[in-house]
Every structure is written in C-alpha cells, then in structure tokens.
Design goal:
The chain is an alpha+beta fold and 860 residues long. It contains 30 helices and 21 strands. Helix 1 crosses helix 2, helix 13 runs parallel beside helix 17 and helix 13 packs antiparallel against helix 19.
Length: 860
C-alpha cells in the first residue's frame, strides 16, 4: 500500500514538472502566461488518463493480493484441521444461536405487518361493544376507518360430520380497515354490515381449501353455519389472518347475532382503527378521551367507568413477548461474546506460534499494513466459515424454537431465513473476524524483528502481553457466564414456584370438551336445560365416569363478568358497581373438579327453575366483599336488571385460577344452568373425570352427544393437565431458552479457562521444570497452577456478580415471586462457576505435575 502511494505521488510530481516546463517554453515563444499554461495543459491532458489507468492497475493488484491471501488462508487452514475445526465450531455455536433468536425477532418484531399501511393501524386495549364501535366510527374524527371482531365457534354441517369452526363476527368496516383485498370475490361492505343486512360470508383460505375443495367458482354458493345459510361472497388470501385471532369464516355480527349486536353494556369485540393521514397517536387519544366523556354522560350505567386507551397495532400484537425476546436476544448475544473471546484466544495462540514467520516476511520487506491485511483475511475467513456453519445450527435452532413456542408468540408464519437474516449472519461473521482478530494481529506484528528471529524470542514482551490479554478474555467469559447463569437460575426458581401454585382443582384424569347449542334449535332456555340434563345423565351412566359442565373451564383465560349489587349495602352510583367473574354450572361440578367446598352446601337437583335462586361464591369474593361476616344467606343480584332478581348465597368454594397460575384470582359467583335466564349462554364445557386414562372415552362421549343431536359438533378436546402446561408455555419457553444459553456459556467458559491454563502451563514448562529440579513437590505445582486459575475465576465471578446485579433487573417482569437480586441464586451460581473453573484448571495442573525437569530444561 505504501509503495502504491509513493508511485502515485511521484507520477503527480512528474506531471506538474512537465506542465511547468512546457508553460515556460510557450511563454518564450511569445504566448501570454494564460495561453501558455492552457496549451501546456492540452498537450499533457492525456496524462490524467494515464494516472487513472495506473490507479485501476493498482486496484487490480490489490484485488489480486486479496484473492491470494484468501487462497493462502484456505491452504493454511487445511494444514491445521484441528485448529480450524475448533475455531469454526466455537463460532458456529455462538452465531447459530444468535441467528435462531434473530430469526424469531425478525419475524415477530421487525417484519412488516401483512396489512395496508400498518403504521396507521391502532388497537383499543380493552374490548368494546358493537354500538360503541359504531359511535366511535361516527364521532371520532381522528380515524378514517375502523371496526371490531369477535371470534366465536359455530357449527358447520357441510362435511361428513358436524365440526365447529371459528367464525369472526365483524362490525363496522373491519376488513376494509385492514386493507387486504380478497383473493376471490369481494368483502362485506359497511352498508351490508347493519341490522337487517343479508347473511353473507367471506371464508379464509384455509377453510376454502380444507372444507370447500378449493372451488374456484365458490362465490355465490351457500354454506351452513349455526343452522343458518350464508352466501359466500369472497375468499381471503393465504397470508391474511385477523390480528391476535384466527378465524375460518367472516360474517356480519348484525346478521349472525342481531340481539347481541345492539347490546351496549356487553364489551366483547376487539376493535382496530386506521388513523387519518397526519394524525398522531396522541391526537387520536385526545379525541377518544373527549368521546369517552360524552359517552359517560349519555350512558352512565354502561360507560361511566370506561377509559379507552389506544396502542399501535404492532405493540398490541407483540404484547409481553417483546421483552422476553429482547432479553433472550441479549442473553444469546452474551453467548456470542464468550464464543468470540475463545476465538480470539485461539487466534492469539496461533499468532504467537507463527510470529517468527511473520517477522521473517517483515524482514524481507513486507509492510506492516500488508501483514495486518494477511492476518485479518485469515481470521475473517474463519469467522465467515463459522457463520456458514452457524446457519445450519440456526435452522435446527429455529425449528426447536417453533416447537417450544408459547401460544402468545404471534405471526409465526413470518419466521424464516430471509434476506435480513442472511445479512445479519454476514455482518456478524465479518465483524467478528475483524474485531476479534485485531488483538492477535497486533501481537503478531508488534514484536521486534531481530528479537523475534532469535530462539530466545519465544519469551519476549509480546508473549507476556498476549498472556495477559488471554487472562482478561477468560475473566470476561466467566463474568458473562455468571450473568447468564444467574438469569437462568432466577427463571428456573420462578418457574418452580409458579408450577407449585395450587390451581384450585385436581387436573389428574380430567378431560374437557366444548359444545355450543345452535340457536335455531335451542333458542329457548327449557330446551337448553333439557339437553344438558339428558347429556349428563348419559355420561354419568358410563362405567367409571363422573361428568359435569360449566360455561368456562379453568385456565381457559376467558370468562364473562357482571357488575354486582349486595343487599343491605350502601347504594353505589350507576355504572360504578364492582365487577365479578360469573360462571354457570350443572351436575356435581365441584366434586368432579375436586374444588373444595369451604362452607355451606353444593348445588342440588332442587336448585332448578321456579325455585329460590341460588349462588355459590369463592373465597376471594368473601375476602373482598364479606371480610368480617358470614356470606351464607346473603342476597346478591346483577346490576342493571330491570326487575331485581335476588340470589341467595348457599356455599363457599375454594379459589380457582381461571386466567393463569401467575394471575390473581378474581371474585367469582357460580349459578346453576337450570336457573339461568340468559338464553345466549348456549355454550358449555364438559368436564369428565375417570378412574384411569381411557383411550376410547372421547369417542364414546361423542356417541352419547350425537345420540341426542347428531348435528352438534364437539371441539377443543383437552386433558386438564395439558391446559395447565399450555398456561405455563410462555414461562417454560423463557426458562428453557435462557437455561440452554447459560449452559452453552458455561461450557464455552470452561473451555476458555482450560485453554488459557493449558497454554500457560505449556509456556511455563521451563519454569516448572526448574521448580521441580530445585525440590518442589508435585502438590506445590498443583497448588501453583490451581492458584493461578482460582485468581482468574475470582476476578471473573466478582465482575459477573456486579454485572448480574444490574442486568437482572431488566428481567424483573419475567420472574414470579423471585427478586432479581435473590441471594441464594447468586451464591449457588457463584459456587457452581467456581467449581467448574477449578475443574477446568485441574487437567492442565495434572499435566504440569508430570513435567520431567530434564526434558523441560533440555527443551529450553
């Protein structure tokens, strides 16, 4: 490079000299100074072209040198297969793990949402009612479009047997707001999505392929949902799915459930809105707050306490998963740092060993820049090969992540190896080779040429500096490993405590399944009650079966809430009554689920229509509303009833975790199905307890159901143990991945300290030989080496504890009943890391104990 600069500078000077001479000659011929210089410049104008051609030649020479360095690097790596394999594997583990996590982050957080102008889309945090959706659409000027969706199960009877499909009942301009055109036909227009509108259906691509045979002429045909016929007017593309929920078919809410669509005080719709161009989220929130005030004045009973909050659609989709993914990405980044530290240590050993060759090249005229380029080319080549191998690990790792994924991990279709992921691998690989190859390059090219060419050059200051850098790298590895191990330990401890939480019922040998009675045949409450009674009687007659039913099963994460009035209490302002969880049950539900009865009595067959209304409350209800009195005999009712219908509390049962083991228990009221006056509660979950696992139980239950009504589909068949596992999926996902990264970091750190101590022992063979020759015992040598390793471990553990105290606070929201600075976890991890570090030092120490002093002295 210096030679090229000198040559180009000389060429510039020659050009200037020739122009100056020619100018003076022209002046001597009688030209003016300006004419003379112009003529000289014209005469030597082609010199500029020569100069540019010279620059091109030197560029080609530089490129040729780079290609030669790459070819030479491949030959050198082939000559050292052991070193090459270890270096590539080390980087492949770090880069592969990072790429796998980045693939998930890319698919979930970075890839654009599959909707038109997604940055203009926002969502309401809380559900809303259909009339409110229509009012927002008319009155809030910040939105250009908006609508809501409520996904419910409906029976589809067009196949060989009835099945339940997920039907998105839409309100307003829901599909138009998302802006995804249909693949076939058209979508439901806002003008058709009104009371009295036609029964139209837009089907998903999955439903079109699975149930309708991918018929390209489907538009105009009819399908049967919930006992009604719907005309299919469109098919959505395969890439389309509504935010946060899956739906097989989209229908107008007003056509499917006109009664519920007009109910303002039942908030069950997820709503999404498109901001007008130029409108910010803050401006839209301000407009919405003004709307809330107007609505509270107009409808105080339903809207007095409601405050709507907007969030960007991406934030709504990602939710709590964002923090977990970023923590995991940070953790796997630390794993990469450990792998890079090991990589740098390997390169430094290689650089010190090949220092004489590099200095020989320097003595023969190779410039420092040329030597640096040659060495960096080799390190970058290694890192790129490690990145390529890391892609294989990443593909396997991504498959594992998808297998372990929690249900909250949305947009899984976007998780794949795309251009952004490949660019990430390339950048990380090249940056790793350059950044972590600089220290070995500096060590290899820093030594004095004359000293390095002598045999005694083995013990130069450069070697000492390299040894110190290696110790610093190993100390850093141990510190990073401790941070990861502490994080994993905290998650494991939190998960263990979460898993030990009593859900409030016994999940062993319990199977659940979901039914929904079609409105066309079971619109009247007596028919619903008759069906439930006959079904329970048949199921309980099966050998070894105890069966009951409830509206919403525990850990389902969904239940209906009602505002409550307690007899004898001071009046509460309309709309300010407390809200409690409400569930309807039939059969010996508490005995089947083994929910303990704390006081009073259970429901009996006498708690039926025409009798005094009965209710059972949970312990949380007692703690919140009856803290110093016995609630048995108290009267309660639902707020907003036209004619007050008082229920008498007859019993108290234990608390049940409905929303999740890590969620607080809400006050709950259980009422018998047979006393319900809510005809819309046609859904139910059957809970069946058996003495042991029965493979044919589900099919037998289906036969009993279909013997009563052959058109009722059965869906969501689950073992209660599986529902508990699903409720813990997010926590298990975080714990397993961070634990895996921590274990990988521990292994890499152990390899790093082993390599550092093994290299140190090899470098000190002469010293150790002298010590033994002078009478040192083998235990002294063991103590010497282990003491050196203990110092490194102590510095690394101390630094790691300080770092962990700071970094673990970032994951506080991921922990359950565990403090980020939990002392037992810190102490246990520190002891574990110390033991592993000393164990890694023990093998080099034993090798040092076996040094023959005569061989060591003769070697020197």
């Amino acid at each position: 490079m210096n030679r090229r600069k000198r040559m180009l500078n000389d060429l510039d000077q020659n050009i200037r000299d020739h122009i100056e001479v020619e100018t003076q000659d022209n002046i001597a011929r009688g030209m003016s100074e300006e004419e003379a210089r112009y003529a000289a410049l014209r005469k030597f104008g082609n010199v500029t072209r020569i100069k540019e051609e010279t620059r091109d030649v030197w560029s080609l020479i530089w490129l040729e040198q780079l290609l030669q360095d790459i070819r030479r690097g491949f030959r050198t790596l082939r000559k050292s297969p052991g070193f090459t394999a270890v270096a590539i594997l080390t980087l492949a583990l770090g880069i592969g793990a990072n790429t796998a996590i980045f693939s998930v982050i890319n698919g979930v957080l970075l890839s654009p949402l599959p909707y038109k102008d997604p940055n203009q889309l926002v969502a309401l945090k809380e559900n809303d009612s259909p009339p409110n959706v229509m009012d927002i659409q008319r009155q809030v000027r910040a939105f250009s479009q908006g609508g809501g969706i409520n996904v419910e199960r409906m029976d589809y009877t067009g196949g060989t047997e009835p099945v339940q499909v997920r039907v998105g009942r839409i309100n307003g301009a829901f599909l138009e707001t998302l802006g995804v055109p249909p693949m076939l036909g058209r979508i439901i227009s806002p003008g058709e999505n009104v009371q009295g509108g036609p029964r139209l259906a837009v089907v998903s691509n999955h439903f079109w392929q699975s149930y309708l045979g991918s018929d390209p002429h489907l538009v105009g045909n009819t399908i049967h949902l919930g006992g009604n016929s719907y005309a299919v007017i469109g098919v959505m593309p395969a890439s389309f799915s509504p935010p946060t929920e899956h739906a097989d078919v989209f229908v107008s809410l007003w056509a499917a459930e006109p009664g519920a669509a007009a109910d303002r005080d039942v908030h069950y719709m997820h709503t999404y809105w498109r901001l007008k161009p130029g409108v910010t989220l803050a401006q839209a929130q301000s407009d919405l707050a003004a709307f809330d005030r107007r609505l509270a004045e107009q409808y105080p009973a339903e809207e007095k306490e409601r405050r709507r909050q907007l969030v960007p659609l991406r934030e709504w989709l990602v939710g709590d998963v964002r923090l977990a993914l970023l923590v995991l990405f940070g953790a796997v980044g630390l794993v990469l740092l450990i792998a890079c530290a090991n990589f740098a240590s390997l390169l430094m050993v290689r650089a010190v060993a090949g220092r004489q060759e590099i200095m020989l090249q320097a003595a023969l005229g190779a410039g420092r820049g040329r030597l640096i380029l040659k060495t960096l080319t080799e390190s970058t080549l290694l890192s790129v090969l490690g990145g390529a191998a890391g892609l294989l690990f990443a593909r396997w790792g991504t498959s594992m992540l998808l297998a372990l994924r929690p249900e909250k991990l949305e947009r899984l279709s976007g998780i794949h190896m795309d251009t952004r992921v490949l660019l990430f691998v390339l950048v990380v690989s090249v940056a790793t080779g350059i950044v972590f190859g600089m220290a070995p390059v500096w060590i290899a090219t820093r030594a004095d040429v004359a000293g390095a060419l002598k045999d005694s050059g083995r013990g130069t200051t450069t070697s000492t500096i390299g040894h110190r850098i290696r110790r610093l790298l190993v100390t850093s590895e141990l510190a990073i490993a401790l941070v990861l191990l502490v994080g994993a330990g905290l998650l494991i401890k939190g998960f263990t405590r979460l898993r030990s939480i009593n859900p409030g019922f016994n999940s062993a040998n319990v199977v659940t399944m979901y039914l929904q009675l079609p409105k066309t045949r079971y619109g009247e409450i007596p028919k619903q009650t008759q069906f439930r009674r006959e079904l329970l009687a048949r199921l309980n007659s099966l050998p070894g079966v105890q069966a009951a039913m409830v509206t919403d099963i525990p850990l389902g994460g969904n239940y209906v809430g009602h505002r409550l009035v307690i007899d004898g209490r001071a009046p509460v302002a309309v709309g300010g009554e407390p809200e409690v969880q409400t569930l309807s049950a039939m059969g010996d539900y508490f005995r089947v689920m083994q929910i303990p009865l704390r006081a009073g009595r259970d429901f009996t067959p006498f708690d039926r229509e025409g009798q005094t209304l009965a209710a059972i409350v949970n312990e949380e209800m007692v703690r919140e509303f009856f803290p110093h009195e016995n609630p048995i005999g108290a009267r309660i009712r639902w707020a907003g009833d036209g004619v007050p219908q008082w229920m008498t509390v007859i019993g108290i049962v234990g608390d049940v975790k409905h929303s999740g083991l890590n969620q607080p228990t809400d006050p709950a009221v259980y009422t018998p199905f047979s006393q319900s006056d809510e005809g819309w509660k046609r859904f139910m979950t059957i809970a069946i307890r058996t003495r042991d696992e029965s493979a044919g139980l589900v099919e037998e239950v289906k036969k009993q159901i279909w013997s009563l009504d052959g058109q009722i589909p059965v869906s969501d068949v689950h073992a209660m143990d599986d529902l508990i596992a699903v409720s813990l999926a997010q926590q298990r996902f975080n714990m397993l991945l961070l634990g895996l990264f921590a274990a990988l970091a521990l292994i890499l750190a152990a390899v790093g300290i082993y390599g550092a101590m093994a290299y140190a022992v090899n470098q000190r063979r002469h010293e150790i030989g002298i010590r033994i020759a002078l009478g040192a015992r083998r235990s002294d040598v063991l103590r010497l080496v282990l003491g050196d390793g203990a110092k490194i471990a102590l510095f690394g553990i101390t630094s790691g504890i300080a770092g962990a105290f700071v970094l673990t606070r970032l994951m506080a929201s991921l922990l359950f009943e565990v403090k980020p600075t939990d002392p037992p976890t810190f102490a246990g991890v520190a002891i574990l890391l110390a033991v592993v570090a000393l164990a890694a030092c023990y093998i080099p120490a034993r090798r040092a104990m076996r040094v023959d002093p005569m061989v060591a002295l003769r070697y020197q």
